[in-house]
């Protein structure tokens, strides 16, 4: 036998398989079930029974683990096509079941088994945030939504370094919606944050971004479509629109760039002329254009592409990037946008048109081809080449030339051709060739024409079904028509028709089924036509439905086809929202009308459109919801392939050659791709192997492999096609399931119930922002989830006023107040602009300005006055614009007056400061009368050089020594908090005050909320300075700092009683500190001391070890802990040297905490000997000559802590402590803090402990203050108002005040005197020089001044502590952002902050005799006349008395 005799057609063997079955088949059944089913759901199976000649009983079952569950039992002697629902068993893990269909009659029995998989219920839940992006300091609102009846376990928030910064446990929700919020601190690290929620056993995560931004005023839309390589010009169009829908006046700069290929840059030697310009070395070639926006805010430009396309040989990449910059007219505000467009090399298409799909042998086939270019225009007079046969070895037929319509006709005589299907191909070249990389090409056409032949078991059927695609999504709730083309070839149809059955599958569920009859005349050997299916579109079909059609022909051949159709993304729960009125003006009342299924709970939100302009594509939409749903549009999972036996083939003398093609429309393949299992007694699947002449042939990729093949038979000659690149039976990879004045940015964030009526009205007040608000609304109800179509509310003033002021000016300066009126009405108006009168400032009209003016459509006008302040402090400047009636015509139009928004009033704040430098003197007393009244006197004195009018005095009284600190928890110091240690000064005092109030039962919910807010903010901010090993450092970089890490450890350990602190952070820090302990128990120092004046006769390691040990003991670490035991041993060995008072006081406190009374007594006795006793008060300093107020407060506070941390306390102990307390109180500043951070933290800890020890819930007191001018101030304090901060402004800033206290409680009294003096020129150990450099002849709209700073230290120490340089801006100036960026990136400055009109620069230290030079550029934002000097101040953070000041002026006249 020749090898050709062994080349067997795939369908020949399949036909032989059919022949075996043909003897027994007269009763036919087909049962369809999804291959993968979700456990616990209600699913459907669809069954067909044909040609029953007796009563047949169909029994359908699911079998697993020896258990059988019957899904359906149906008896019938009639044909039927029906679908039946059934309840799917619940499973915890994926499980394979046997789906069994048994059809039994008296003379008939057939059993078919298929494998199906039941997967666990997939819980749908997601997280929604109100915005995708936040500024540090804003509040993140978020919801966790579950579409299942499960409980919420916990939630947490992580920062960009995976630190847990928030956690919620044991949380309750409203229904299936959990709504929470988290406040970011003002120093929140920029980057991506993660919210994680656990619902039941499932976790869901959602990311949001934190960065510093300014909301865009307008949006840029770009039309920049795909570019063909043959294009000569490319038109781009841009439109700039304000967020309230009006066009932006201005100009646009366009850069069209084509970058070089990956990792390439080219040196161009040729000269390029504008507008195509570039530098010598570039990474892209660009062309530039500038255009003026028209009245619609749009503009277009045609770029000549010849320059780009000529450079293909230079390896330019296949993408064009269009960079657009739009500059708003009048303001200079610039916004940029970018869009990419790819390059296509397809320059045309060749397609067959009007060509038949079937033919009868011997006939002449008439057909046409059409050729179009990339614009879909017909190409005339083009020669194309027609071939037939396989693509690899085609047979040339003829050349064709197109007519003026791009059409070329052809005819083929089939008389001499083989009786087989004809495959036609048409090319633009005389022979087939591969598409070359980056070479223009035509896409070629191909077409197959099936030959009409009688049905035979030796031939594959030419009959077919084809479901015609519909590109547009099908609308929900409507009945749509789907066209199915059919070709019935070579069939004898006794009934005159065949049934076409269709199934609709979506998300792995059969949703609809039906059948239609197709007439087939018996006299026709081939019948072509189409039939229409009617499909009712329901929400369960979204987002994609697959339509499968199949038919059982009289020859018992099955033909099938399937197609996917997009469905409108809709939900069963219909939700809608609507604003009434649909347009609004700022500040007016509005109603949000909500409609949903009765009983629904709805989540509503409305966000400024500007947010989504900046971060597009992040809104909650139907796409996101449907992405959570499993569509099961994947190959069958591994393990679901049903076994199939071998086919025994008898030898034949001759067989047709096997064509090496793979037919995706085979019924079995179609069913498999459709995602269903078909149990049937028909042969619809190819056999896996063949037995032929004693050999077994098993299919593999590309053919059959022979086992035990006889001599002369080569393996692989029986060629069964498999999936390209995948061996038959190879396990498929498991499907990857995608688990998924009021100017707010968020206006609405609320949960609303619609009740039984299914509707609710939400009353609202429209914010003042002129913008468009974009809504999101979803509901959960008995019918499931629903999402409302997005609705926008445009808030718009028909005309509105814009007033811009500088942040502050100095008395004696004045500026031009500008008020710009915008008219966006379609008609002209007469507008009158009037500033409010005030005694605080003088407005001088400019001579050439009229304050009533015509303003026509889309016009703007600016009105000007000169504003000169007459008082100091915060001024409110108000301007009113009104559209008024007028007999004067404007542009030959009668002016109109709008019905709504006729008046717009804008109020802005202006801070007027005094000249020079501000100083504050405070006088404090803690007065506790015991029977008789106590009297204190103080004389207020102003320096001779006080700035006139800058002096002011105040008196404050509280019934608690911690009350003043409680009032100013966010500002105990008038100093910046920009590093890791300074931030702790914000955090730690909150802890001690909370502990005190909690221990004395004075902690109210309001105080707790306020303090824990600051605690949470401080915790979050402190994580910015954390290292991956658990250590902390001053700026979060370099090596860890042992002092700071211990400070953080003790604070976090105490704070966890009030807020969430990640235990991992505490454990990491403790572990890192322990790793720094030396072999003798002392801790090794890493990083600098906070205050270098701590140094004395002992080593830094002793002081550090005492500090760390105290921290651990404060956290209740037992003394028996090996680390603590070892460190105490180190400390005991160092007590022979008590020359360092700071260390001695700290040791006294540490041994007190350790319970070592012997060491405590020894140390306190020494400290008592060296105490400074003045006016009956006690305190300590580092040395007799040391004048550091900060260090004195800290030392005295440690002594106070050591004195109080013993039980029991005697009256003598409390009396001794009160002497220290009274001295400490006298050192307090006007905000309740002290000189610096460490002294403030330790002092408040000590005062809190003292206040706890002496607390009494009884007593009242009267405080009377007699002023020099005779005025009397009276304060009554009792247990109800002891924490109330009571303050009075004092009329007299000079003279003697008398304070009299009477009663049986304590009063904390403070008199504060503030004033300005000319900037001092005397330097201490620090100096700062400022040199302004400016081009006074520049024509720039924004004057730039370069400030050159030179800082120097002249002291005796090897280096300073941290130094702050505080630069006040000239009035009307702001720092240049680019200059700030460069300053932050420099090695000279460690950190740069902006606060109001000050720039704060942090320098880790200055060393003697070395200059430190740095530069800052500032820009003039608003012109101010009579500019006064601005002050630059430099000071030692931990020794603020070491300071210097300098002034700089604007040098231009």
TrEMBL record:
<keyword id="KW-1133">Transmembrane helix</keyword>
<comment type="similarity">
    <text>Belongs to the protease inhibitor I39 (alpha-2-macroglobulin) family.</text>
</comment>
<dbReference type="InterPro" id="IPR008930">
    <property type="entry name" value="Terpenoid_cyclase/PrenylTrfase"/>
</dbReference>
<feature type="domain" description="Alpha-2-macroglobulin">
    <location>
        <begin position="746"/>
        <end position="835"/>
    </location>
</feature>
<dbReference type="InterPro" id="IPR009048">
    <property type="entry name" value="A-macroglobulin_rcpt-bd"/>
</dbReference>
<dbReference type="InterPro" id="IPR019742">
    <property type="entry name" value="MacrogloblnA2_CS"/>
</dbReference>
<dbReference type="InterPro" id="IPR011625">
    <property type="entry name" value="A2M_N_BRD"/>
</dbReference>
<dbReference type="InterPro" id="IPR036595">
    <property type="entry name" value="A-macroglobulin_rcpt-bd_sf"/>
</dbReference>
<keyword id="KW-0812">Transmembrane</keyword>
<dbReference type="InterPro" id="IPR011626">
    <property type="entry name" value="Alpha-macroglobulin_TED"/>
</dbReference>
<dbReference type="InterPro" id="IPR050473">
    <property type="entry name" value="A2M/Complement_sys"/>
</dbReference>
<dbReference type="GO" id="GO:0007399">
    <property type="term" value="P:nervous system development"/>
</dbReference>
<dbReference type="Pfam" id="PF07677">
    <property type="entry name" value="A2M_recep"/>
</dbReference>
<dbReference type="InterPro" id="IPR041813">
    <property type="entry name" value="A2M_TED"/>
</dbReference>
<dbReference type="GO" id="GO:0005615">
    <property type="term" value="C:extracellular space"/>
</dbReference>
<dbReference type="Pfam" id="PF07703">
    <property type="entry name" value="A2M_BRD"/>
</dbReference>
<dbReference type="Pfam" id="PF01835">
    <property type="entry name" value="MG2"/>
</dbReference>
<keyword id="KW-0732">Signal</keyword>
<dbReference type="InterPro" id="IPR040839">
    <property type="entry name" value="MG4"/>
</dbReference>
<dbReference type="Pfam" id="PF00207">
    <property type="entry name" value="A2M"/>
</dbReference>
<dbReference type="InterPro" id="IPR001599">
    <property type="entry name" value="Macroglobln_a2"/>
</dbReference>
<keyword id="KW-0964">Secreted</keyword>
<dbReference type="Pfam" id="PF17789">
    <property type="entry name" value="MG4"/>
</dbReference>
<dbReference type="InterPro" id="IPR047565">
    <property type="entry name" value="Alpha-macroglob_thiol-ester_cl"/>
</dbReference>
<dbReference type="InterPro" id="IPR014756">
    <property type="entry name" value="Ig_E-set"/>
</dbReference>
<keyword id="KW-0472">Membrane</keyword>
<keyword id="KW-0325">Glycoprotein</keyword>
<dbReference type="Pfam" id="PF07678">
    <property type="entry name" value="TED_complement"/>
</dbReference>
<dbReference type="InterPro" id="IPR013783">
    <property type="entry name" value="Ig-like_fold"/>
</dbReference>
<feature type="domain" description="Alpha-macroglobulin receptor-binding">
    <location>
        <begin position="1360"/>
        <end position="1448"/>
    </location>
</feature>
<protein>
    <recommendedName>
        <fullName>Alpha-2-macroglobulin-like</fullName>
    </recommendedName>
</protein>
<keyword id="KW-0722">Serine protease inhibitor</keyword>
<dbReference type="Pfam" id="PF17791">
    <property type="entry name" value="MG3"/>
</dbReference>
<keyword id="KW-1015">Disulfide bond</keyword>
<dbReference type="GO" id="GO:0004867">
    <property type="term" value="F:serine-type endopeptidase inhibitor activity"/>
</dbReference>
<dbReference type="InterPro" id="IPR002890">
    <property type="entry name" value="MG2"/>
</dbReference>
<feature type="transmembrane region" description="Helical">
    <location>
        <begin position="12"/>
        <end position="37"/>
    </location>
</feature>
<dbReference type="InterPro" id="IPR041555">
    <property type="entry name" value="MG3"/>
</dbReference>
<feature type="domain" description="Alpha-2-macroglobulin bait region">
    <location>
        <begin position="465"/>
        <end position="614"/>
    </location>
</feature>
<keyword id="KW-0646">Protease inhibitor</keyword>
């Amino acid at each position: 036998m020749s090898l050709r005799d062994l080349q067997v057609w795939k369908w020949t063997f399949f036909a032989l398989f059919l022949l075996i079955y043909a003897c027994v088949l007269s009763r036919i059944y087909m049962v369809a079930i999804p291959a993968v089913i979700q456990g616990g759901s209600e699913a459907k199976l669809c069954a067909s029974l044909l040609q029953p000649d007796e009563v047949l009983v169909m029994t359908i079952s699911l079998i697993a683990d020896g258990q059988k569950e019957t899904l359906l039992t149906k008896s019938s002697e009639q044909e039927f096509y029906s679908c039946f629902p059934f309840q799917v068993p619940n499973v915890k893990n994926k499980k394979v079941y046997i789906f069994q269909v048994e059809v039994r009659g008296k003379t008939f029995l057939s059993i078919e088994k298929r494998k199906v998989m039941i997967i666990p219920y997939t819980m749908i839940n997601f997280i929604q945030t109100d915005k995708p992006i936040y500024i540090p300091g804003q509040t993140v609102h978020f919801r966790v939504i579950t579409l299942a009846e499960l409980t919420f376990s916990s939630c947490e928030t992580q920062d960009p370094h995976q630190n847990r910064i928030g956690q919620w446990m044991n949380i309750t929700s409203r229904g299936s919606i959990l709504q929470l919020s988290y406040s970011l601190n003002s120093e929140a690290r920029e980057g991506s944050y993660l919210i994680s929620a656990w619902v039941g056993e499932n976790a869901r995560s959602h990311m949001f971004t934190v960065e510093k931004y300014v909301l865009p005023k307008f949006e840029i839309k770009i039309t920049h479509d795909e570019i063909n390589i043959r294009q000569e010009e490319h038109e781009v169009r841009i439109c700039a629109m304000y967020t309230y829908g009006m066009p932006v006046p201005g100009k646009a700069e366009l850069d069209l760039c084509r970058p070089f290929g990956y990792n390439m840059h080219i040196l161009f030697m040729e000269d390029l002329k504008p507008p195509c310009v570039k530098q010598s070395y570039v990474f892209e070639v660009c062309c530039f254009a500038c255009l003026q926006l028209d009245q619609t805010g749009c503009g277009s430009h045609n770029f000549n592409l010849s320059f780009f396309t000529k450079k293909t040989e230079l390896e330019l990449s296949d993408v064009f990037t269009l960079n657009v910059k739009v500059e708003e007219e009048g303001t200079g505000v610039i916004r940029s946008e970018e869009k990419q467009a790819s390059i296509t090399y397809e320059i045309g298409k060749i397609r067959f048109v009007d060509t038949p799909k079937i033919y009868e042998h011997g006939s002449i086939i008439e057909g046409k081809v059409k050729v179009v270019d990339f614009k879909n225009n017909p190409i005339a007079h083009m020669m194309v080449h027609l071939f037939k046969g396989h693509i690899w070895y085609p047979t040339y037929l003829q050349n064709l030339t197109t007519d003026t319509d791009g059409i070329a006709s052809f005819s083929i005589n089939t008389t001499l051709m083989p009786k087989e299907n004809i495959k036609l191909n048409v090319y633009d070249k005389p022979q087939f060739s591969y598409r070359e990389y980056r070479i223009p090409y035509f896409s070629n056409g191909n077409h197959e024409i099936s030959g009409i032949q009688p049905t035979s078991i030796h031939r594959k059927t030419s009959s077919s079904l084809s479901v015609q695609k519909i590109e547009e999504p099908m609308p929900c709730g409507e009945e749509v028509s789907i066209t199915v083309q059919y070709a019935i070839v070579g069939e004898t149809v006794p009934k005159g028709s065949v049934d076409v059955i269709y199934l609709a599958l979506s998300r792995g569920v059969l949703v609809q089924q039906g059948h239609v009859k197709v007439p087939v005349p018996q006299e026709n050997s081939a019948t072509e036509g189409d039939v229409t299916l009617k499909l009712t579109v329901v929400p369960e079909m979204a987002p994609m439905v697959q339509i499968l059609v199949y038919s059982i022909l009289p020859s018992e051949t099955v033909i099938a086809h399937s197609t996917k159709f997009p469905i409108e993304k809709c939900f069963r729960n219909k939700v809608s929202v609507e604003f009434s009125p649909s347009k609004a003006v700022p500040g007016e009342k509005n109603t949000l009308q909500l409609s949903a299924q009765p009983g629904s709970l709805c989540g509503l939100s409305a966000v400024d459109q500007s947010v989504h302009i900046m971060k597009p594509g992040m809104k909650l939409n139907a796409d996101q919801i449907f992405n959570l749903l499993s569509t099961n549009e994947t190959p069958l999972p591994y393990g679901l392939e049903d076994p199939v036996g071998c086919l025994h083939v008898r030898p034949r003398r001759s067989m047709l050659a096997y064509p090496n093609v793979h037919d995706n429309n085979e019924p079995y393949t179609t069913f498999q791709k459709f995602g269903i299992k078909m149990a049937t007694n028909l042969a619809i699947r190819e056999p896996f192997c063949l037995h032929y002449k004693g050999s077994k042939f098993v299919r593999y990729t590309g053919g059959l492999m022979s086992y035990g093949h006889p001599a002369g038979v080569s393996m692989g000659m029986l060629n069964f096609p498999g999936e390209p690149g995948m061996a038959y039976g190879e396990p498929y990879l498991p499907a990857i399931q995608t688990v998924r004045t009021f100017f707010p940015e968020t206006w609405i964030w609320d949960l609303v119930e619609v009740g039984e009526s299914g509707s609710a009205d939400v009353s609202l007040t429209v914010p003042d922002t002129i913008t468009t608000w974009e809504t999101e609304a979803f509901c959960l109800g008995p019918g499931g989830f629903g999402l409302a179509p997005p609705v926008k509310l445009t808030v718009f003033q028909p005309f509105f006023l814009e007033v811009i002021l500088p942040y502050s000016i100095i008395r004696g300066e004045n500026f031009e107040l500008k008020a710009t009126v915008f008219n966006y009405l379609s008609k002209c108006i007469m507008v009158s602009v009037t500033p409010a009168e005030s005694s605080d400032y003088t407005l001088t009209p400019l001579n050439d300005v009229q304050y009533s003016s015509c303003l026509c459509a889309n016009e703007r006008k600016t009105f000007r006055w000169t504003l000169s302040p007459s008082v100091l402090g915060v001024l409110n400047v108000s301007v009113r614009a009104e559209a008024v009636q007028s007999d004067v015509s404007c542009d030959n139009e009668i002016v109109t007056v709008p019905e709504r928004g006729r008046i717009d009033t804008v109020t802005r704040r202006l801070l007027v400061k005094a000249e020079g430098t501000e100083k504050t003197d405070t006088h404090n007393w803690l007065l506790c009368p015991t029977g008789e009244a106590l009297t204190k006197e103080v004389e207020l004195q102003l320096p001779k050089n006080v700035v006139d009018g800058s002096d002011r005095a105040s008196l404050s009284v509280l019934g608690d020594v911690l009350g003043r600190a409680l009032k100013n928890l966010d500002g105990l110091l008038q100093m910046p908090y920009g590093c890791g240690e300074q931030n702790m000064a914000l955090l730690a005092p909150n802890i001690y005050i909370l502990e005190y109030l909690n221990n004395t039962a004075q902690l109210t919910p309001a105080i707790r909320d306020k303090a824990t807010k600051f605690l949470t903010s401080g915790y979050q901010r402190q994580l910015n300075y954390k290292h991956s090993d658990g250590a902390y450092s001053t700026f979060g970089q370099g090596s860890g700092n042992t002092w700071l890490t211990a400070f953080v450890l003790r604070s976090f350990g105490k704070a966890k009683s009030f807020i969430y602190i990640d235990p991992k952070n505490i454990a990491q820090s403790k572990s890192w500190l322990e790793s720094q302990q030396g072999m003798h128990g002392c801790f090794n120092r890493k990083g600098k001391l906070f205050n270098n004046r701590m140094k004395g006769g002992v080593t830094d390691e002793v002081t550090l070890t005492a500090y760390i040990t105290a921290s651990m003991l404060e956290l209740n670490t037992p003394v028996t802990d090996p680390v603590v035991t070892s460190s105490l041993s180190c400390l005991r060995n160092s007590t022979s040297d008590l020359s360092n008072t700071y260390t001695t006081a700290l040791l006294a406190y540490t041994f007190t905490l350790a319970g070592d009374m012997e060491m405590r007594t020894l140390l306190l006795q020494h400290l008592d000997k060296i105490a400074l006793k003045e006016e009956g008060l006690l305190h300590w300093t580092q040395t007799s000559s040391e004048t550091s107020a900060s260090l004195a407060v800290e030392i005295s506070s440690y002594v106070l802590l050591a004195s109080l941390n013993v039980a029991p306390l005697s009256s003598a102990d409390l009396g001794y402590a009160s002497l220290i307390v009274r001295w400490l109180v006298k050192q307090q500043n006007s905000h309740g803090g002290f000189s610096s951070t460490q002294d403030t933290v330790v002092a408040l800890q000590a005062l809190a402990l003292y206040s706890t020890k002496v607390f009494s819930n009884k007593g009242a007191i009267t405080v009377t203050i007699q002023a020099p001018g005779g005025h009397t101030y009276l304060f009554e304090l009792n247990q109800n108002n002891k924490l109330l901060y009571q303050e009075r402004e004092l009329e007299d800033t000079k003279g003697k005040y008398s304070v009299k206290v009477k009663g049986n409680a304590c009063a904390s009294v403070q008199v504060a005197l503030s004033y300005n003096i000319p900037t001092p020129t005397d330097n201490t150990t620090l100096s700062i020089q400022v040199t302004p450099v400016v081009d006074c002849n520049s024509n720039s709209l924004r004057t730039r001044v370069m400030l050159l700073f030179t800082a120097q230290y002249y002291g005796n120490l090897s280096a300073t502590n941290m130094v702050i340089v505080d630069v006040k801006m000239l009035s009307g100036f702001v720092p240049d952002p680019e200059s700030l960026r460069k300053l932050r990136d420099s090695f000279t400055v460690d950190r740069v902050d902006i606060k109001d009109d000050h720039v704060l620069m942090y320098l880790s230290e200055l060393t003697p005799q070395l200059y430190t030079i740095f530069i800052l550029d500032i820009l003039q934002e608003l012109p101010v006349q009579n500019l006064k000097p601005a002050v630059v101040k430099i000071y030692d953070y931990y020794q603020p008395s070491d300071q210097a000041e300098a002034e700089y002026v604007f040098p231009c006249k």
